[in-house]
Amino acid sequence: MRVLDPAFAAHLQGGITTLATCWRIARRDGVVHGFTDHDRALHFIETEFRPESGAKGSALRASADLGVDNSEIEGLLSSISADDLNAGRYDGAAVELYRVNWAAPSQHVLLKAGTIGEVTRVGAQFRAEIRGLSHQLDQPTGRLYQRLCDVNLGSDKCGISPAFVSAAVTSLRNSQNFSASSLDHYDDGWFSHGLIKWLSGANAGLAAHVKNQAGAGAISLWLPAGGPIKLGDAFEIQAGCDKRFATCREKFSNSVNFRGFPMMPGNDVAISYPLRSENNDGGKRS
Questions:
Q1: Which residues, at least 6 apart from 150, have a Cβ–Cβ distance to it below 8 Å?
Q2: CATH number corresponding to 165-239
Q3: Where are the bilayer-spanning segments (predicted)?
Q4: Overall average pLDDT of the 187-213 stretch
Q5: From 162-166, 180-184, 212-216, the region with the lowest mean pLDDT
Q6: Architecture field, domain 6-136
């Protein structure tokens, strides 16, 4: 149950209301944007909600059960950069939806909080799905019974955090394949399944996952970089782990913290059947 400010509650009970909707988007890198469907800027909770975005939202859907409640926000790409959308800078951003008395913005109420899900573009417009907090209940939690380790390299449960190595792009084939300096003396595959943090260029502040690393510093990414990669772009790269027990033991000497089940029986055991053997009198038994 929402508790309303007495003045705001009195305003809602009056015959005439002056209401607007506001959205506050906080990216994971700390950048905050405010949008409103009102025709002038509004200020509250230390945020400026601007009208020039042309933002509007779909009808709110809510349920009393644990079903996922989603809505959408759409608008023009005036305040949100198309390049930032393509680069994934808004993926997982926190969203707060407010109803506010535009004549007295201090009178407002939080209607919904969630995160940005799928984002699409059509020309100069964007549409972002807002996933409610109940969406997190659909995510798998707990340990997985599998041969591979179920934690990421560098996490607390892993206990190993290899240092990042500084490098820069020296040659470029496409948005997923390039060569870099300072990596020549590392073994092939040392950085495969590793992590890149871009320090300069169009992707500065973003991270990328390494698919493969071979001799002469050749690097392949799992997905194209969000922005164009150019010669000289600086980044840091961390050694990778394919989550196998042999890798944990031989590459990182960390078998004591391995979180998989390497001795788990495979499919051949699941579909096998008891073998028949001969008894002493020459008969056969199962």
A1: 143, 144, 243, 259, 260
A2: 2.40.30
A3: none
A4: 93
A5: 212-216
A6: Beta Barrel (2.40)
